[in-house]
Amino acid sequence: MLVEINVNGEPKSADVPPETTLLKMLREDLGLTGAKLGCDVGDCGTCTVIVDGVSVNSCLMMAARANGSNVTTIEGLANANELHPLQEKFEEHGALQCGFCGPGMLISAKSLLDRNPEPTVFEVRDALAGNLCRCTGYTKIIEAVMDAGREMRSGQSGA
Amino acid sequence: MATRTKDIRTDTEELLTEAKAPSQQPLTVPTDKPVAYPLDLPEGEARLRTPAVGQRASRPDGRLHGLGQTQYIDDITFPHMLHAKILRSEYPHAKILSIDTSEAEKMPGVLATLTGDEIPENSFGPTFQDQPVLAYPIVRHRGDGVAAVAAVTEQQATDALEKIKVEYEPLPHVFDPLEALEDDSPKVHGDTNIYTSKTIKKGDVEKALKESEHVFHRQFRTQMVEHVPLEPHASIASWDGNGRVTLWTSLGRITLGREDLARTLKMPQSKIRLIGTVVGGNFGGKNEITNEPILALLSKKAARPVKSVFTRGDEFISSTIRHPFTMDYTTGVDSDGKILARKIRLVLDGGAYCSWTGTTIGKGSILAPGPYNIDNILVEAFAVYTNKTTTGAMRGFGAPQVCFAYESQMDDIADALGIDPLEIRLRNGFSENSLSPTSQTLQSVALKESLTQAAERFGWKEWQE
Amino acid sequence: MKQRGRGMACMWYPIGFTVAANPSAATVKVNTDGTATLLTGTVETGQGALTVLGQIAAETLGLATDDVHVVSGDTDVTPMDTGAIASRTTYVTGNAIVRAAEKAREILFEAAAPLLKVKPDQLEARDKRIQVLGFPSSSIPIAEAVQHSEGVLGNPAIGSASYNPPTVEMDPETGQGKPFNTYVYATQIADVEVDDETGEVEVLKIVAVHDCGTPINPMLVEGQIQGGISMGVGFALQEEILFEEGRQINPNLTNYIMPTSLDMPELEVGLVDNYDPTGPFGAKGAGEPTAVPTAAAIMNAIHDAVGVRITALPATAERVLGAIIEKQEAERAAPQ
Q: Residue C68: closest CA among chain B residues belongs to which residue?
């Protein structure tokens, strides 16, 4: 069946079997391998993407259900001239180690900062609670998100 | 003719001169479209500074991670690539009477199957080669793979697994490590379940215990835990027309991996190539081969690249886990809390196969007395087989387990004698040139510094409760 | 009622394999523009090894971190390496890299010496230049030295070397010997709150002070310590594979509980100022030691808070509450 979605501002479509998840469609049919397969049952958060403004575990969403939606993946955060402040701060703080949780973590963080530009540390922890990380202990990730929030509020970036 | 050549040369020179002139137009790229990479971004400043040691340099892969550009094994695909799935044992200990893959082979999309008897050398292991690539004829834990299938899609491979018929004859099993120590326990391999032991002996521990003012005894136990790397184990195998096989793998030790593949496939090392990309977390669990020989053989049979990614369930039941330790600590101290003697017995639950147990028992035994000056030490450690998930290397090789025991007991001693926990550690702790439990002279010792600095940062002396 | 407690734990941990040979080999090539390539057989498993190894090569050659490109993980291309295991990468592979880079550097010194009118052993590589010891204004850029060495003298600046930590076999009966060449030390102190009615333990803060020799990249060492502590917290309080008749009953992330961002305490991380002359630029290692003392520190803090000694991990709420109740009953039963 044909599924049409708008990914990172571009219309995309693919002909997929009905049981295909949005994650599989993004990774295998559209070549967007940023979102990862960590558990396939919505426990780890490595597949997190934004669908119509809400962050979701794309392994739990059928591709068909996303038909006609606006989807943002990690590939849509940076533009040709600059990184998203979150990507910048994650790099500066050394927030990612093996990086596997990174795309999901960044998308969840973006989703948080989009709706709450001035979060407390607890609110950051809470927003990221669905994204597991085994390498970092979350500390530098949280610092980077707080720092990115500060930068976005001061209007120094265009993102 | 000569004139024409001269004209051509002039034209060319002019063209070259034009080409060298930098473009006057600034580069414009639409900023609202997704990109593969932003252009011309500066590197983090710390990366550009000298001297290099001590800089908080950002990682080059850090930027790629943030962009989602890092290619893990599962992100790589090849034309005509197949997907493999592994069928795992239904019993913790059993003999395989027969395996029939004929129905599976007829399933749509299936291009190859594999069982243990097809593997040229069906054994591997970092210390003892007691682990099969695909178990045959004996399975020793529920995570043992018994057959593999390669098909065009993952779903087809999973469906085909259900058609593989395996006949098992269950054998007596043993799960408890203390039970496994007994002579009359069911045996996992050979004649005894104790497959490795270690002794560290210094001074005269029995005499020193008798002379101690106070003797403390306790048993401590730790549990089975898994590494949980966010990236499951993944590999891709592919051959070329010269009979050379390449494996892209999440293995953390490719030199050893190549040796293992040469051994299990009975091939020369020069015909094997292992490529390790960025691994999504290892922590010790990706330090030995898992699927690689299976994929190499499936790929050869099907004449196509074959990929396999562990499911999260596979990660738990089939990859290695941390050794549960049962630790008996008997410590004798004088009235000032100075440790005179320490007697330790460690029993390691070694799972179904040896894996990294040799290293774990070795390190665990050496570290077990703790970073303390003790003249009389006896450590006796045993690793036993049980019909459970293979225990292997996991961040610490026995250190977290023994540290839990020796530091808990340290506080017990401090509490009983009314000594401050910081003070008792400073009294007993290693200094430069202290002797280790194996009588090694220790150098570059920073134990007491770490104690006092941590205590200061924490506000240990000021703590009110 | 919530009870507060503090507990400390210190530890020691070795670098490298137990007695057994665990060599690493490395190759360093310097390019004609003064940048360089490092070939190492280790694999990046997330800890940042390639960044650190690049820094070690850069330091030996007098370059900046960004000048060195690190190639790793291909058995066709990179030399052998025993692997990223046993916290050995910075120390063993690092030492191999120092030796390899020194060989490449020696070729450059041989080429630069006559240009600077001194002997090769009077030179050092610093700030992207080859300069005379004690008289740094007499110097040439590294790029020039490479171009001269390769393009004029015909000696490309390339060096390969290996390293294996020296050990002494352990006696089979007494275990006496020298199994490792160096060890690291650390202390972690935990501040916890225990609810004595539910047994729930909340770790409020952990202070960790670790010795890793010279921190080649302090940011990455901090990351290792923070990550190690998160595994330690999980080991102490949450994680357990449950078995029934040899079958795992929780082989998934819903029922295998591990730390999320909400479970992590506030962390304060410090490094002891130490230098190990046997390590590359004084460095030792940090990968595993970080996960070692956490559980012990938390158990000691629980003991301080509610007076119970947990002897089996993990210290789940049920176990802690069970121990508290047992203690209360024992106190009630004790003669007055």
A: B47
Give, in degrees to the nearest 5, the angle at Cα B421 between B419 and B423.
Answer: 70
Instruction: Give the tokens for residue B379.
Output: 């450590």
Q: For B425-463, what is each residue's pLDDT tens digit?
A: 999 999 999 999 999 999 999 999 999 999 999 999 998
Choose among B71, B124, B88: nearest CA to B231. Answer: B71
Q: Is A138's Cβ below 8 Å from some Cβ in C?
A: yes
* Inside any domain, residue C308: yes
User: What single DSSP character describes residue C334?
Assistant: S
Sorted by where each starts, the structural domains of chain B and their CATH numbers stand as: 82-170 (3.90.1170.50), 177-225+321-458 (3.30.365.10), 234-318 (3.30.365.10)
Asked if B383 and B398 count as a contact pair (C-beta separation under 8 A), the reply is no
Contact (CB<8Å) B62/A41: no
Is C248 found in the same domain as C131? no
Instruction: Note the pLDDT tens digit of each residue in B287-303.
Output: 989 999 999 999 999 99
Which domains are assigned to chain A? 2-76 (3.10.20.30), 85-153 (1.10.150.120)
Up-side HSE of residue B16: CA atoms within 13 Å toward CB? 6
pLDDT of residue A79: 82
A133 vs chain B: nearest CA distance in angstroms?
Answer: 7
CATH code of the domain covering residue C295: 3.30.365.10
- The Cα diameter of chain C in Å comes to 95
DSSP state of A137: T
Average confidence (pLDDT) over C2-17? 96
User: Over the stretch B80-115, which tens digit does the pLDDT of each residue have?
Assistant: 999 999 999 999 999 999 999 999 999 999 999 999
- Of A11, B380, B363, nearest to C18 by C-alpha is B363
* The pTM of the whole model exceeds 0.95: no
